[in-house]
Specification:
Length: about 100
Amino acid sequence: MATQITDENINDILKQKSITVIDFWANWCGPCKMIGPIIEELAIENTDITIGKVNVDENAESALKYGIRGIPTLLFFKDGVQVDKIVGVKSKYELQAKINELK
């Protein structure tokens, strides 16, 4: 299951594991609903990394800090540093390939 990330815990989450993937989303976002189950599957299948979700409506500070302009946006971090960004819906295969590149 994807980790629930908030403005309060995002910095701690980024320190937990070498690789972190964060999905910025909102309840009203149709494409977010499409990618949500894929994010959950990836979280279950990649237990060696952190995969989490940030609700932009409830955590505006994090969305602002990372320049989130459209959702869904996935940010990829390695050792706490953002190394990549994907905006929009991508296939599970494409997202897993990106994760594998970081590993």
